[in-house]
Amino acid sequence: MRLSLLALFLCAGTLPAADWKLAPTPLMTKWGKQITPEKTPWAEYPRPQLVRKDWLNLNGLWDYAITKKGEAKPSAWDGKILVPFCIESALSGVGKHPTPAQELWYRRDLDASAWKGQRVLLHFGAVDWETTAYVNGKEVGTHKGGFDPFSFDITDALKDGKGELVLKVWDPTDKGSQPVGKQIENPHGIWYTPVSGIWQTVWMEPVPNPGPGPLYVKRVQFIPDIDKGEVEVLVEINSDALPVTAEVTITGAGTQSVQAGKAARVKVPNAKLWTPDAPHLYPVTISLTREHRAQMMREAGETVSSYFAMRKVSAGPDENGTLRLLLNNKPLFQVGPLDQGWWPDGLLTPPSEEAMRYDLEMLKKMGMNMVRKHIKIEPARYYYDCDRMGFVVWQDMPSAINRTKKHFIPPGAKQDADDQFTDTEKKQFNLELKAMIDHLKFFPCIYCWVPFNEGWGQHDTNAILKWTKEYDPTRLVNGPSGWEDRGYGDMKDAHIYPGPGMFPIMKDRVSVLGEFGGLGLPVKDHLWKDQGNWGYRTYKTEEELRTNYHGLMTRLHPLIGKGLSAAVYTQTTDVEVEVNGFMTYDREVMKFDVADMAKWHKTLFGPAPEVKELVPTSETTGQTWKYRTDAPPEGWAKADFDAATWSEGKGGFGSKGTPGSIIGTEWTGKNIWLRRTFELKDLPAGELMVRFHCDEDGEVYVNGVLAASLPGYTTGYTEVPLSAAAVKALKAGPNTLAVKAKNAGGGQYIDVGLVEQIPAKK
Question: What SUPFAM superfamilies does the entry give (predicted)?
Fold first, then answer.
């Protein structure tokens, strides 16, 4: 996106760097270290889906002040803040958090005098949360929403094209009812440092103001139809007072005139389809003309540029009749990370587009084809980069807090009923959900919408999912991602840590694994905090981490053969005290060998191995076990141990409400011991694995020999390899499977079986 000479001239002036210095932070990225107030941050054109020639970037040093809520505009300012970085971030130069009892003010001068005779639009990429804007003391607009872009026409408030811009921002963070994502006043665990105020690019641009009024493009939308070789084009303009024609020129497909404000279908001959391996984009130029029929004349409006892709999102059966995620009518297994987009120096704002793109470049090198953008909306250029680089994006709606209990639902907690939101809270959530879809539905990379995650602020679930599907029928809608499923949605989404695992295949919904893994490795000198770091499993060396990740991929592969259509690993980078990223939080250390990862991921797209059940779990039918909850005598796991006095019950064993559990026998005590016998006609030749769901700290024995240790807890069924000693202990004929598990707090559950993994024939 090239700046015009006018834009370069307008951007040339830089506010003085007095009173600004980097705020304290535990970590910095290499891109953050390059930021200075003398160079405009985020200088790229911020709206790649609708590009105009002339514009003015307003990022840079502004005045700021924090006052009590309700006070008038400050007469003095606290200092300088570097926009577009939020006030809590190191790169803002401030490092303070306004409380819900305070308001954040911004001030800077504007100069649009070079655009005389045109309308001037003021744009904000995102401001968290309630924004009121004043130009020369005149209120020009308000906006509520922390993640979506908004604009004000400020022409009439300017004086000779100039003015003083003042913003007042109020952000209640998690003390309010609005969507906040992972921000919280008291950051800890999986909840992060709050973000207030401006955190995406602020900019101005002129639009034509000819004849009886302004004439410019407000939005463009392209809906491809690869089955008919057409694309539906909609050019929305600012007025429908007179007929307006849009000349749409598609590179490689010619020019066609369409009526602005009305959808029209345009042929795209021999269409090149967009895929992750070949992400072809069609450049587009749009020129407006207005018809003055009474005067028998045509009036030229503006010319803008855009793009689109020919691709189709759907779900349908594969050659075996299994329901799959499809791209361009073909099954596409989707593998990628949970991508939260947090930065140690910029928090929600990446230090630069180069930094933001680096994450995607590394994921591409790892052989991944999708990202789940987790409860955050990125700058528009992120999605443009995904379009260009070939990433499928699952887009989460930023979560609201749980209003009934006044806090977030913690990981692993069960929410049997939807939360109760007030009508006002529902209205705001719906407004921000609609704003997200309106903003992002342009981008071809968006594959599905994810309105809810794990019960966080989950309300009116199926009504909201159905509305989303009807509002954008061109994409899939993920049922709640996690364990709070209500029976609706194109996908049924399991979260299983460390996993992997899946829901059984269904006739009407696609089985996906929306979160798994979370394998942690703290890297000294690259930590947000030296103590209190965590992962779902934490290792001490890179070798341990890589071996266990490879094991996850090995166990994931057969699930694809069973019907699993996508897998989302947690996560791209470490975030604050979470250390389960592919990279450290500062992006300085890659914990894996990228070439090895690419090989492991490539295998997932080949023929899947067969999985043969040797000893069934209780997932579909409750299996009979002998059990006891007081400590048994020594030798309790051996094949010849007499367990005649033990109680008998159906698996699985646990307490109601434990995520992913299928209770056959209630177990609420501290410890449990289990035994059962099974027959093998012949010794298996494939790789043997324990299939289990354990909460928590389990041990599995085969004929008295330790077969697997199951530390920590899982949130669903998964597999681990049998030990070599246990494989040797197996025999044709009767065998004994023995299990011990304990409850250290929270949910509790244990169910175990054995499976054989047989490699696919080449």
Answer: (Trans)glycosidases, beta-Galactosidase/glucuronidase domain, Galactose-binding domain-like
DSSP code, position 624: E
Q: Give residue 250's identity as a one-letter amino acid code.
A: I
Tell me which residue of 726, 720, 719, 717 sits closest to 695, measured CA to CA: 717
Q: Tens of pLDDT along 202-214? A: 999 999 886 667 7
| In the chain, where the domains are located | 5-39+60-200, 217-225+227-308, 315-608, 613-758
Q: Is the pTM of this model over 0.85?
A: yes
User: b vs e for 509-530, b when ≥16 Cβ sit within 10 Å of the residue's Cβ?
Assistant: bbbbbbbbbbbbbbbeebbbee
How many residues in the chain? 762
Q: Who's near 244: CB < 8 A, 6+ residues apart? A: 215, 237, 259, 260, 261, 288, 289, 290, 291, 301
217-225+227-308 carries CATH number 2.60.40.10: yes
Q: How far is the C-alpha of 244 from the C-alpha of 68, rounded, in Å?
A: 49
Report the 10 Å Cβ neighbour count for 257. Answer: 11
Q: Collapsing DSSP states into helix, strand and coil, what is residue 560? A: helix
The domain over range 315-608 is classified in CATH as 3.20.20.80:
yes
Distance of CA 242 to the CA centre of its chain: 42
pLDDT digits (tens, 9 = 90+) for 578-634: 999 999 999 999 999 999 999 999 999 999 998 899 999 999 999 999 999 999 999
Are the CB atoms for 19 and 78 separated by under 8 Å? no
Token look-up 């460390």 returns 498
